[in-house]
Amino acid sequence: MTVRLPPFAHGPHPAMPVAAYHLFRFRARELPDIVYADGLLGAVHLDKPEHVEPYREALNRLATQAPPATRTEPLFGAIRAESQG
User: Considering only CA atoms, which of 56, 55, 52, 36 is closest in space to residue 44?
Assistant: First the structure.
């Protein structure tokens, strides 16, 4: 798992209007990408390419906005220090 934190100055990212979701990508090419979206009224599994693509695109856009994962840990440390006072 990789955690990356986009700068708040960039504003809301493209996945904000969506509840929490996970995009599963498999190394075996014959297995399609799958989206698991969890919401207030239940969960949904999407595996049709036309349904998965908007989620993939949102994550890809988010990845281009966020600094590399190596810079995430110091950002979390700074946020923690700021919130503690």
Answer: 36
